[in-house]
Amino acid sequence: MQLELKCKKCDEAFSADFAELTADPELRCPGCDARATEEQVEALTGAMEDLFAAVASLRRKFTITGDLDGDDLPPPYDEAPAAKRGKAALLEDEDDEEDEDEDEE
Ligand SMILES: [Zn+2]
To answer: Per-residue pLDDT tens for 84-94?
Structure first.
């Protein structure tokens, strides 16, 4: 399964293979070398595994399709932490999936 990514720093579009990310949690922009931390990648792949398990159990009855757009997340994840924009932009994208924002609300 391929994840489509776009670097916010240099605009480079690239993809990452889910299985490879799980085995080696390194996410790096091929254009400018911006990268996500290992923790962020592991949080993402871990969350996706949970999602896959849930979808698999539902699959007998329903097919689920949908797009994941890091810039179009449902509340309370829809508000991007402004302070993080810029330098750590790539990080922020996947980051919204999992930690930080969660405890607020
Ligand atoms: Zn880049």
So the answer is: 555 455 555 55
